Here is the input.
Amino acid sequence: MTQFFRVMGEVGESFDMVEQEFLATGGTAVVLTQVRARARATGRELSFPILQAITVEEGLITEVRPFYWDTRAIADACAMPTSTD
Here is the structure.
């Protein structure tokens, strides 16, 4: 989790989890999150859903597997346009 938020802080100027739905059974939780973000490199804003499968053992999060719907849109928003010179 620490690494995820560190990377999001480097890539994103803002990264807000605006809406979340949780489903938990036993040691597994599934979280659907609606994110609003602004890319630091480009200033572009985007909104996208993330689905996360989270494993909890002895009260601690041991694994988070994020699934993004449109990774191309996220990559495009974060990338600076290349020069055609």
